[in-house]
Amino acid sequence: MAHDTQKRRAPFIVIEGLDRSGKTTQTARLHEQLKANGVEASLIKFPDRSTPIGKMIDAYLRSVSELDDRAVHLLFSANRWELASKIESTLLAGTTIICDRYAFSGIAFSAAKVSPAEPSSPLLPFEWCRAPDIGLPAPDLVLFLDITPEQARARGGYGEERYEKEEMQARVRALFGQIGSEMQRGSEGAENMPRWVVVDAGREMEVVERNVWDLVYPLVEEGIAEPVGKLWTR
């Protein structure tokens, strides 16, 4: 452990990826492993379907209700803002946060929507999609679990929710790649910028789990000296 741990806060870890990439399994396993190693850790998931806003999102995702695409995007962002202050206070109190999906999913899934009449034309501009999340607490590490849409389709339960269509997932994957490239460029030599790491999620579950642990545990062990950053405010 670092000698100046008292001055350090806990890390904020986000796990992103396409649907059926193993995100939920890996976040749960990482959370359990941290607790087994005596680490105070909290697991959160977005959307948080338990809040009033989250219940509206849940109905939409299950195709029970229809909402305007812009309204849906703003609801997803509002759902994250509902927990923003809690995330910051939890980290400062020394509890590591493991997060299943975050603002990056919100941007990628909304910006991937296209007009039925013009399949090559995005419905919502990328910058418009990013704007509502500017200033959210920034994670210290983002692990993107990368899997091809073809691999995802081969896994059980694919296609049960609104966005689980192969063409959509391919567009989402490309947008995640764009976000990751921007993050990797922006974090070079810059404080308070998330570190973005691509993890091959097409491998055996246990192999991915070890890879995730090796990336996360050093951050947890050392703690973070810098204040909680803000997304896209630099």
UniProtKB/TrEMBL annotation:
This is Thymidylate kinase. One of its GO terms (cellular component) is cytosol. Residues 15-211 form the Thymidylate kinase-like domain. Pathway: Pyrimidine metabolism; dTTP biosynthesis. It comes from Pholiota conissans. GO terms for biological process: dTDP biosynthetic process; dTTP biosynthetic process; dUDP biosynthetic process. Keywords: ATP-binding, Kinase, Nucleotide biosynthesis, Nucleotide-binding, Transferase. It is an enzyme of class 2 (transferase). The keyword Zinc does not apply. Its EC number is 2.7.4.9. Transmembrane segments: none annotated. Pfam families: Thymidylate_kin. InterPro entries: P-loop_NTPase, Thymidylate_kin-like_dom, Thymidylate_kin_CS, Thymidylate_kinase. GO terms for molecular function: ATP binding; dTMP kinase activity; nucleoside diphosphate kinase activity.
